[in-house]
Specification:
Oligomer: single chain
CATH architecture: Sandwich
CATH class: Mainly Beta
Largest sheet: 6 strands, antiparallel
Number of domains: 1
Number of strands: 11
Number of helices: 2
Distance between the termini: 61 Å
CATH superfamily: Jelly Rolls
Strand content: 35-45%
Shape: globular
CATH topology: Jelly Rolls
Strand order of the largest sheet: 1-2-3-10-5-8
Helix content: 10-25%
Order of helices and strands: EEEEEEEEEEHHE
Amino acid sequence: MTRPLPSLFPPESGDHLTGPPGASFHVRAESADTDGELGVVDVVLQPGALGAAPHIHREHAEHFHVLEGAITFDTDDGVKVMGADGIVSVPRGAVHGFRNSGDVAARVRLLFTPAGYEDYFRAIDAALTAGEVLDAAALIALRAGFATDPAPEPGPA
């Protein structure tokens, strides 16, 4: 009986992708390399850059490990700021968005379980490389292809 082998991902491995203004992506691990179990993308957000407007993933959980700087999270429970080495775990169906509201660049590692959402970042890169304008509506349409919906508008208090 042959046992599976571990997958190794040295720091230089993976694809560096173009992001919207103020953002860049580095796909570190993807579905094909993890038997569909884990996707990992490092994101660098410049000061004031939006990572994603509040949204909901229907088919995967998303976990954030803030590596440098601080990331502001928008959730149904309010606005939360997580500094370097903090971890935020977002289960399927939970509203979340993230941004860099600080004055220094922030780096955050995104982990997707199961894998697959890393291809959303590839879709952004492909659209930008093709010269497309990725406004809020275009990003919503792209996310829809990855079982992700915009967060519902808050109702009256």
